[in-house]
Each structure stands twice: as structure tokens, then as C-alpha cells.
Write a structure and sequence with these properties.
Blueprint lengths: L1 H13 L21 H12 L8 H4 L7 H16 L1
Length: 83
């Protein structure tokens, strides 16, 4: 898995040329505790990207009526981190 991720995500972007053969997305799935977040965090670190974890249970804790407020809050925080 590490070699595949390196070849498809990290190496093409580190060459600073057009990443024609680079993958632009990946779907990591599995039960809790199978390193999905760790893998995504490692890819982000290797590329020098920021990484934010949004816990679904916490995000939906106030119920569906407050989802729009939470979305606005998250994107507001992400904009601040970007600057």
C-alpha cells in the first residue's frame, strides 16, 4: 500500500512537473481503527499539505437542523488556517 500511495500520489507531485499520472482522489474505507486517518495524514505530511480531521459524531451532535451552522463554522476556520 505504501508503494502504491507513493507512486500515485506523492512522487508525481514532488517532481514539480505536471502530475499527469497522479491520482487525484482515493477512497479509504474500513471499520474504525484500520488506519484510514493515519494514511491520509501521512500523505498530507509528505506533500506539505495541511490536514484537518472532522469527527462525524461531533459534527452531527446538535442534530441535522444545526448542520449548516457547523458547515459555515468549519469552512470559516479553514479559511483562517489558509491565511
Amino acid at each position: 500500500l505504501k508503494a502504491i500511495l507513493w507512486d500515485r500520489f506523492i512522487a508525481p507531485r514532488q517532481k514539480m512537473s505536471s502530475p499527469i499520472n497522479a491520482a487525484y482522489s482515493a477512497l479509504l474505507f474500513g471499520p474504525p481503527g484500520t488506519a484510514k486517518t493515519t494514511i491520509a495524514k501521512s500523505i498530507a505530511r509528505a506533500l506539505g499539505y495541511g490536514f484537518v480531521v472532522i469527527d462525524t459524531a461531533t459534527f452531527l451532535a446538535d442534530g441535522l437542523p444545526n448542520v449548516m451552522r457547523r458547515v459555515a463554522y468549519v469552512f470559516g476556520r479553514l479559511k483562517k488556517l489558509r491565511n
